Amino acid sequence: MSTNNIPRVEVRNISKYFGNVIALSDVSMAVRAGEVMCLLGDNGAGKSTLIKTLSGVHQQSEGQYFVEGEEVRFNSPRDALNRGIATVYQDLAMIPLMSISRNFFLGSEPTKGIGPLKRFDIAFANRVAHEEMAKMGIDIRDPSQPVGTLSGGERQSVAIARAVYFGAKTLILDEPTAALGVKQAGTVLRYIAQARARGLAVVFITHNPHHAYAVGDRFTILKRGRTFGTFTKEELSREEMVRMMSGADELDALTHELQEFEHTDQLKAEGKLSETEQQLSDKLG
Ligand SMILES: Nc1ncnc2c1ncn2[C@@H]1O[C@H](COP(=O)(O)OP(=O)(O)OP(=O)(O)O)[C@@H](O)[C@H]1O
Ligand SMILES: [Mg+2]
Predict the structure, then answer these.
(1) For the chain, domain boundaries
(2) Labelling 218: which of 11, 62, 122, 126 has CA 20 to 30 A away?
(3) What is the pLDDT of residues 216-259, one digit of tens each?
(4) What angle do CA 43, 44, 50 make, to 5 degrees?
(5) Hey, whose CA ends up nearest to atom 16 of ligand 1?
(6) What does the radius of gyration of the chain's CA atoms come to, in whole angstroms?
(7) Which fold has domain 9-246?
(8) Does the beta carbon of 9 lie inside 6 Å of ligand 1?
């Protein structure tokens, strides 16, 4: 935990326009060291736009952005990285045929020797990749095996370990568990908790309220570019979160619709449908 309470990253009243599209409107949020902030919301809610603003891909159209209390304006992801803000995107920038350790050091290769003899220091890379993964509780047997042979969850874990090793203070994860099965998602969630325990500030985007509830300390909910606010676990039960994220009204409508189907099936079974209704029902399967 940090000794002070100044957020690692904070945005105040930011808006982002793409031409006529209002992707974000008057959004405020903050993340502190040793905390997991979940960013929740439906498709198109503005989650990716918000984290791309945090990570220097976009600049906000309006509002302010602070890193450790200092107002910033990033011109590129490199600027954000220099301030310790690392982002792991869903489509990981990894090369499947290259080894785990090669991928771990992609863009920052350790070398040995000089001049024409300068080469990638394989032993060093393998050792560090293995150690860093072990620190996070993952035992990779062979760091020289291709990344393509790892599971989706393990691959996400390599990306997170890499960000931590290269000094990230704020870790932003855009739906790392979206395409994963239960067990693999568990691996990534455990990893997120580890990062928090090591004092990182984590922004975790997910569509899954159960994943959010498992590791989140606070929850910021976006809907059509606006915030519903930020909630703690005490303020928002799992049931409420599920309801909020699924869209309670839509769910009620769906329940009603499903009951209608059931009703039709029942009538059909009892032979109470007229001939045309029967044909229609058969056609619909
Ligand atoms: N570069 C862009 N140009 C124009 N419109 C954009 C651009 N990026 C995002 N948008 C629009 O901004 C809105 C928010 O998009 P965003 O990708 O942030 O949503 P999201 O919450 O990440 O959704 P998802 O859950 O589907 O990933 C959408 O209406 C989207 O079409
Ligand atoms: Mg998105």
Answers:
(1) 9-246, 253-284
(2) 62
(3) 999 998 988 999 889 998 888 888 887 777 666 666 777 778 88
(4) 115
(5) 46
(6) 23
(7) Rossmann fold (3.40.50)
(8) no
